[in-house]
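Question (not urgent): is this output format expected?
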Amino acid sequence: MGNCIAAGQIWMVWLISFLIAWELVWKAFALWRSARKGQLIWFVCIAVFNTIGILPIIYLLTNKEDKED
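Got this back:
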């Protein structure tokens, strides 16, 4: 009982760390864009629900920036 995490379970720590980082990156970008566009409903939904980046990705794909040439 010396180690808190068994050697065989270290992959789970890396997986969880990766998923947390993945979620934070997508969530931050989507929250920034929705706040800039004044879309309160999207902002609240993205901020409240943790979907491993799926909801922020859907938002970013459906609400692309209009580029002016």
